[in-house]
Amino acid sequence: MTSNVHLVCLNCQAFNRIPKAKISAHPNCGKCSTPLLSGSVHELSDRSVQKIIQKNEVLTIIDFWASWCQPCLMMAPQFKAAASQLPQVVFAKLQTDKFEQAAAPYNIRNLPTMVAYKNGVEIARQSGALPTAQIVQWVQSLSQS
């Protein structure tokens, strides 16, 4: 019996079941054919954030940021570079000043804040701007635990 991993497509929000053995083969969404694990950062909306958090069974890192926050803007390219180094992890961003209601349930008090989720559960959070190497190190430490 093959065990599956559930992933929400960040493009169309379709729910996908991927065999664990195929997760490293760059699977595509069954509905829209977009790569599910692309090594890029995806912008979330108020409608997609909760579904991504609750349904993804792979490590999902969400950067909560605001357009007025200078450390957030400085970290954005670092976050993008980290995503490209860790293609088996979902990297996403939620703009808290644009989607205040969507961000409110996650109790974000400092910006930027990266929150790690797996199987619908918060497993860690890191506040403050970090360089690429430290983001990668932090995410890798979560993958091993």
Q: Layout of helices and strands, plus pairs?
A:
Layout: E1 4-8, E2 15-19, E3 41-43, H1 49-55, E4 60-65, H2 70-85, E5 90-95, H3 100-103, E6 113-118, E7 121-127, H4 132-144
Parallel strand pairs: 3-5, 4-5
Antiparallel strand pairs: 1-2, 4-6, 6-7
Helix pairs in contact: 2-4
Quick summary:
This protein has helices at residues 49-55, 70-85, 100-103, 132-144; strands at 4-8, 15-19, 41-43, 60-65, 90-95, 113-118, 121-127. It has 145 residues and is α/β, with parallel strands linked by helices. It has one domain (37-144): Glutaredoxin (3-Layer(aba) Sandwich).
Describe the structure.
With 145 residues, the chain is of the alpha/beta class. The chain has one domain (37-144): Glutaredoxin (3-Layer(aba) Sandwich), CATH 3.40.30. The protein has helices at 49-55, 70-85, 100-103, 132-144; strands spanning 4-8, 15-19, 41-43, 60-65, 90-95, 113-118, 121-127. The strands form two sheets. It has a five-stranded mixed β-sheet with strand order 3-5-4-6-7, with helices on both faces. The protein has a two-stranded antiparallel ribbon with strand order 1-2. Helix 2 packs across helix 4. It is globular, with a radius of gyration of 14 Å. The mean pLDDT is 93.
